Structures are given as structure tokens and as C-alpha cells.
Amino acid sequence: MAQWQTPEELEQLLTELVSWQSRSWTEGERIFPHHLMNKLTNVPYFRENSQNLTFFKTPDGREGVNALYLSGKSRRTIVLLSHFDTVNTEDYGHLENLAFHPQRLTETLHDYKEELPEEARGDLESGEYLFGRGVMDMKMGLTLHMSIIARASEEQWPVNILLVTVPDEEVDSAGMREAVPAIRDIQHRYDLDITLFLNSEPTFQELGDEHFYMYSGSIGKIMPAALLYGKETHVGNPMSGLTANYMATFLTQKMEWNPEFRETEMGESTPLPISLRQKDLMGTGYSTQTPYRAQVLFNAFLFKRSAKDIFELFRKTAEEAAEACNSSYEEVCRREDVQPLGKVEVMEYRELLHYAERKLGKDMVRIYIKEVMEKEEQDDREVAVRIVDKLILHCQELGPVIILLFATPYYPAVNSSEDPVVMGAVDVIQQKAKEAFDLTVTQVHYFNGISDLSYVNYNGETEGWKAFERNSPVWGERYTIPFEDMEKLRAPVMNLGPYGKDAHKRTERLHKKNAFQEIPVLLETLIDYISERD
């Protein structure tokens, strides 16, 4: 019998994977793929076909793992996608040392039940859940995929299985962006026909929602951002300047919860945009110089819209904010009987870049950008804003101005709800779940937790993503998206994973019966359907 097939074996494998703590940007994340590779070599098929176990690397040296089972009977291939990084564990407080030991944590939590929210306390007392960082998001998904490839290779299933697991999903998805060309290389080398990309991210619900979901798409995410440049002055002479903080309030009010950014498709709607960061760029020290440079970052979700669509809407919103700011500022100037310092204008990053190149020369602009890029202690979002800041400081005559840009990451939306393969698979899974477990599986068209499925089956127009490239200051150096390869990985997508609750919270937990008994059967049903389909 193949490894990792019984509920007990699955739970044991899951707890082992979780114990290899792999928080994003830690040494554990770097070591995890090597532990995993050693584990997979225990599968007889991979002992005999070690060349089918390979690493791929991100630019910073982190690694992902590809494991390929070749049936020898078909070109048809199912790609199993997962990530092994987790978010941090500070939220566990005095129990942080147990966060990566699910069984011990679950037992210990009984001594601290009064600290838990009511729903989590009830789930703990039921004995039906396993608590711990990563049990739900998403070490259980990887556990299930390992079980599938072990069984497929042992029983010689008539379909090829490519297991792909990546680092960094929780931050920038550098792992998946590097996995895309690696998948393309494997597809070309072995002449594979990719029939389905299957992710097993967990079901995501709101508080109190007990429904079980499967997903035929994944929501998109993009981050419009701005650097606001005003006029500096001394606090003792406030009307001689215009603070960037004042300007930022107008943009934030226009962007936050703006219903124009909401999309509705197939009865589902994207969450409203919200601000993720708003701060000045004056450093940490105290100064009586007013803050004349500030940054704001926003989160926007996508269904059908492209980066181009969002940027056009962002510019419209920023121009409305600038108009409101100018009107309010001019009213204050009239009240104080002073002359305004100018009108707040709106520019895109690409416009600023071209202006700076004309003024300073392309070579000098490249030097300035390189200086900022080489400060590796800053994340890509900060680097993007600092590049704009560096250029505007050499083009101060443009102020007061709002410079619009895109920060990273960018997750294009993907959807396969109308694909015949997916439509048939949904019916088959729903029927099996009801017959075998009296479980109702509800189809959702867009996975709302954001996933690496965004980087396959891309079918957007080139001009749509070019808008991101042109207005992303870190593009091509610190951040890229393999759009061309993504377009070539044309295959439907699905997400079918375990039921759990409270991802990214200290009460993260996994429903054991669903994870160890129900989902394995549903995944096997799905793969049988794909492999036998004409």
C-alpha cells in the first residue's frame, strides 16, 4: 500500500510538515524544501526516478520543489499547486513555542479556553479540530498532494501528476512566479498536456459560516499607490507650505471603500478597496520642518478588470481628490489672506520618469534608481516609493503633485467556471460528496483568499498588464511576472482543499474528519474524472 493513505498517516505527515516551521523569510522556509525532498525520496517511484525530483530557485536563493510522476500511458497531466511558507507566530503569545506542534497545542489550549473566542472554544471542546500555524494554510494541502502522488505512482494511475510546492506565497509569490517557467520547461521536456491546475488552499469562510466550498477561480489583487509631494516650511510659518499629509487625506477619503472599484460577476462581488499604508517620508527623528512628502498604498481586488482598467480608475479618483484638495486649500488661503502656492496636479510614474530623463539624462536617472534598488533591507513596496521620492526631489518644480504608481505584488484574477472540464468536475464532486458523506459542496467562482492560481491560465490583453509594467518602479529589477509563460499555461483551474477556520490567526484550525477522510476521497474522484474524460 502506498504511503500516507490512512487518516492516521495523513495526520502524522501533516504534523511533521508543520513541525518544519517555515515562516516567510526565515531559515525554516529555506530548509523546508530539502526536508521535503528527503521525504519524497522515500516513495519507491522517486527512489527509482530521482531525476523527476527537482528544485527551482527564486532570485534570492529560496527554493521550490517539483515532483513528477509519469504514467507512460497518457500526455494528460494534472498539476498540484501548494505553498509551504506560513505567516509569523507572535500572535500565539505565551503559547508561541507550541504553534508548530499541533497536537500538543490543541491539548494545551484546553487549559486556556477562556482566552479563546466563543466559536474557537466550542470547536476546541468538540474534539473535531486540530490547531496550529499552517495546519490549515496550507500544510494540509501539501499533505494531500503528497498522498496523491504516492498513491498514483504506486498504483500506476493513467494520468501524469506534477506536484509543485513553492515558498513566499504569503508575501510576494516569488516562488510561484519562478515556478511558472519551471513548469513550462517540464511540460516541454516531457511533452505534457496540462489538463488542470489544482490548488488545495483551504475553504475560507466568514465568522459563523459552516459551509464547505470548492472554487473555480481565484480573485485578483493589485496595489495602487501614490507619493504626495507638497511644499516644505517651518511649523512657525504654516501657510508658507503645503503638507503632504493634508494632501493624502483627500486621496485616502476618495479611495477608501470606493464603490467604483467593486466588481460583480456571477453573483459574487470583490471587497471594497482599503488603505494599507499612509505615512510621511520624513524619517524617525523629530523636526520642525513640515512633512512635505508622504506615501499611501491601497489594496484593490479584481475579477475581470486589468491593471490598465484599475490605473485609469485610480487616476480619475486621484484627480477628484486633487480637485477637492485644491478647493479646500484655496478656501483656507482666502480666509488667511495669503496667496496659494499652486495647484495640486496628478502625474503617473511613467510621466515622472520621462520628465526626469529629459531633465537629468537617462544615465543619471539610472544611477539614482540603482542607488535605491541596492538598499536590500527595504521591501519592494518601500523601494518603489523611494524611487519616486528620489526622482521628485530632483524635479521639485513639479510640486505640489500626486505621483501615481503600482506597488507590488500583483495577482491577476483567473476563472474557469465556464470551462467544460471544470463544470463536469464540479457536478461529479458535488454528487460524490453528497453520496459518500452527506456533505454539501457549494461552488464559489472566485477564491477570496488570494492564491498562486493567479499565475497560470492568464488570458488578459497585453496592454492590460503593460500598464502595470510601465508604472511599477521596481519592474524588471526586483520584481517581474512571467506573463508570456503564464499565457502558454492554458489549462483550467480549480481549488479544492480542506475545511478550516481562522487562517492567519492564533486560532487557526483544521477540521480533522474533512481533511483526513472526506477531502482525500473527493480529490481522488476529481482526478479519476479528469483522467478518464474523453
Strand neighbour order, sheet with most strands:
1-2-5-3-6-18
Average pLDDT confidence is 94
Structural class: alpha/beta
Q: How far is the N terminus from the C terminus?
A: 29 Å
Report strand %. Answer: 15-25%
Structural Rg: 25 Å
Quick one: overall form?
globular
| Most strands sheet | 6 strands, mixed
Strands, total number: 20
The stretches of 5 or more residues where confidence is low (pLDDT under 50) are: none
Oligomeric nature of the chains: single chain
Organism: Salimicrobium salexigens
Protein name: Arginine utilization protein RocB
Characterise the protein shown here.
The protein is of the alpha/beta class and 534 residues long. It is 41% helix and 19% strand. The chain has a six-stranded mixed sheet with strand order 1-2-5-3-6-18. Helix 9 (307-336) packs across helix 14 (462-470) and helix 13 crosses helix 16 (512-532). The longest helix is centred in the middle third of the chain and has 30 residues, at 307-336. It is globular and about 85 Å long. The two termini are 29 Å apart. The model has no long low-confidence stretch (mean pLDDT 94). It comes from Salimicrobium salexigens.
Task: Please give a quick description of this structure.
This protein is α/β, with parallel strands linked by helices and 534 residues long. The chain has helices spanning 7-19, 27-40, 44-48, 102-109, 118-126, 135-155, 174-190, 244-255, 307-336, 349-360, 362-373, 380-393, 420-437, 462-470, 483-488, 512-532; strands spanning 53-57, 63-69, 76-83, 129-131, 160-166, 193-199, 212-215, 217-218, 220-229, 264-265, 268-269, 274-280, 293-302, 345-348, 401-411, 414-415, 441-444, 493-495, 500-501, 509-511.
